[in-house]
Amino acid sequence: MNNVRTETKKVPNWITFLLAIACGVIVANLYYAQPLVGPISADTHLPLASAGLIVTLTQIGYVFGLLFIVPLSDLIENRRLVVSALAVVICALVAAPLANNALFFLAAAMFIGLGSVAAQILVPYAAHIATEERRGQVVGNVMSGLLLGIMLARPIASFITDLWGWRAVFTLSAAITAILAVLLALVLPERKPSPTMNYGELLSSLWSLFKTKPVLRRRSLYQACLFGAFSLFWTVIPLWLVSDFHLSQQGIALFALAGVAGAIAAPISGRLADKGWTKILTGVAIVIAALSFLLTHIFEDHSTISLAMLVVAAITLDMAVSGNLVLSQRAIYSLGSEIRGRVNGIFMAVFFIGGAIGSALGGWAYAYGGWMFASILGLSMPVAALLYYFTEKNI
């Protein structure tokens, strides 16, 4: 009864706005550490070759959450589940700045990722509580908040670190997330699902869905390759900007802020996908991602022009990843509302595995071969996606 009531009642615009902010604030926790790999590694005595683990373990925690926590949204009341996940995030965010050794910080990073799946509970939750005629608009607005959180996390983290150090980033985020958790607990409409299977059956169905839905499989692997390249780029680029261009944390923040311009591709991709351009736009996004890495090698003299080309590469790479994300979500959500939560969890889990691999490879490659080796690995990921893309038929 409660489920029916929240799906048919018109949701106030301010709740949609709150959900958009919430998703942005929560998902930002996954990306704060990316531009801070250098100072965190130094303070926690983590070797440069293992620095990518800072981002990798956050993403691995997120994957575990996607596979084992997000499916619970089809079983238990969603508001309570979101607040419980945020409690995990808050504890981990409090622990992270207290870390004096690598093991302690890496454990906190993993739990930050685990609890941050609250964002992926809120996106399908928004679809459930919206009326049919406003569902697309509501989900689109919430996704805009999520994408802005992803794009703004890196420059915000760098600016705060430049002022007060990297530990302040996690302390402030813990406070903001705690306020958000209380607010969500007080104002979100209740949503009680009507489960048709138990938790074990729900988890068992994940592999079956991945195996039997070619659209889900293909879109997940495309995004895994692009997100792997994206994660490698943003894990390594702050290290390169410091060592070769001698940028401060404020300079890295300004660099990362430029990448936010790539978010413009998301709404454009959504509108063009509605016109049936999904397949061709996917190919364009993959090619743009590959070209982004090639752009970084046009000028290699550490000059202003070379730095400008890096900025362009960051923008185009972000455009490719955010644009393909919207294309992919539109495709997989068409597979049916009754499996939407699980499909979303599978899709996110697969492409975050790609991100975790990219981050780990990036730190290792940069330690042993500099930007040249790291960028070759980064380029290989969209190239692999392009080869797979050429096998696509009308499915």
UniProtKB/TrEMBL annotation:
<dbReference type="InterPro" id="IPR036259">
    <property type="entry name" value="MFS_trans_sf"/>
</dbReference>
<feature type="transmembrane region" description="Helical">
    <location>
        <begin position="247"/>
        <end position="268"/>
    </location>
</feature>
<feature type="transmembrane region" description="Helical">
    <location>
        <begin position="105"/>
        <end position="126"/>
    </location>
</feature>
<feature type="transmembrane region" description="Helical">
    <location>
        <begin position="221"/>
        <end position="241"/>
    </location>
</feature>
<feature type="transmembrane region" description="Helical">
    <location>
        <begin position="280"/>
        <end position="299"/>
    </location>
</feature>
<feature type="transmembrane region" description="Helical">
    <location>
        <begin position="371"/>
        <end position="390"/>
    </location>
</feature>
<feature type="transmembrane region" description="Helical">
    <location>
        <begin position="346"/>
        <end position="365"/>
    </location>
</feature>
<feature type="transmembrane region" description="Helical">
    <location>
        <begin position="166"/>
        <end position="188"/>
    </location>
</feature>
<feature type="transmembrane region" description="Helical">
    <location>
        <begin position="305"/>
        <end position="326"/>
    </location>
</feature>
<keyword id="KW-0812">Transmembrane</keyword>
<feature type="transmembrane region" description="Helical">
    <location>
        <begin position="138"/>
        <end position="160"/>
    </location>
</feature>
<dbReference type="InterPro" id="IPR020846">
    <property type="entry name" value="MFS_dom"/>
</dbReference>
<feature type="transmembrane region" description="Helical">
    <location>
        <begin position="81"/>
        <end position="99"/>
    </location>
</feature>
<feature type="domain" description="Major facilitator superfamily (MFS) profile">
    <location>
        <begin position="15"/>
        <end position="395"/>
    </location>
</feature>
<dbReference type="InterPro" id="IPR011701">
    <property type="entry name" value="MFS"/>
</dbReference>
<dbReference type="Pfam" id="PF07690">
    <property type="entry name" value="MFS_1"/>
</dbReference>
<protein>
    <submittedName>
        <fullName>MFS transporter</fullName>
    </submittedName>
</protein>
<feature type="transmembrane region" description="Helical">
    <location>
        <begin position="45"/>
        <end position="69"/>
    </location>
</feature>
<keyword id="KW-1133">Transmembrane helix</keyword>
<feature type="transmembrane region" description="Helical">
    <location>
        <begin position="12"/>
        <end position="33"/>
    </location>
</feature>
<keyword id="KW-0472">Membrane</keyword>
<keyword id="KW-0813">Transport</keyword>
